[in-house]
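Internal ticket #5521
Category: modeling
Description: The requester needs a full-assembly model to guide mutagenesis choices. All entity lines are attached below as received. Residue total reported by intake: 252.
Assigned to: D.W.
Attached entities:
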Amino acid sequence: MKTAAATATAEAQAADFAARQAKALLVHGRLCAEYGAPFPFFSTKDPLSELVSALLSHRTKNADSHRAYQELRATFPTWEAVRDAPTEAVQHAIRACTWPEQKAPRIQAVLREISERCGTDAPCALDFLAEMPIPEARAWLESISGVGPKTSAATLLFSTLRIPAMPVDSHHHRVAQRLGLIGPKVGEGPAHKLLEALLPPGWDAQQVYDHHEALMFHGQKCCYFSSPACGRCVVLDQCPFGQARLGGKAAG
Ligand code: SF4
């Protein structure tokens, strides 16, 4: 039997969760209106290509990872050819992105592992992930060494699969943290499950994509890493971080 203290704690946790859910929806509505949702999907890659693209994009500007991806595709005719090429050649092709010396062997190892799991000569296309429940598809991808929650979600959502799994990039993470949707010490990896749990379970891929893009745009265009523009922020009334900042400035 639960003690009164345990019951009170459980009730407080449930109330806190409900408040964060409501805030996530309110913020979603305002930021989608601010930045012009629905946002068109930017990628039409098949899931395997999207996976490689996501591995290239880690801590890299979009333009640089795009250049690295384009050159990789131009240099090698197939993913099988990338897998079996000398690592230095892959590293050279992706030199536009950050840490090509780490990403080249990682991409080749991922392609090797996918080929082994599929039991095929060439790495398989990953379209079969569409037949799995989303948590299983994510677990399949994340059990590959070097594939984390952001990469698995990007593969499922951004690719032609269009499966509603939500990636959390550094902008999205920063905005969510300042708004109090997640705690101040929650890292980008663990934030995926916590932030996805706040979204209505029936949301489709477009809604999940809009949510991610809206928070990301807000991080890029207003909630900057240093000196966020809180004075013109459309969710200031929901943001303890921004209110403390402006309050502090006013007091100072
Ligand atoms: S109020 Fe400031 S810190 Fe909060 S979300 Fe807006 S810009 Fe970011």
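Resolution: model delivered.
Comment from assignee: The radius of gyration is 20 Å.
Ticket closed.
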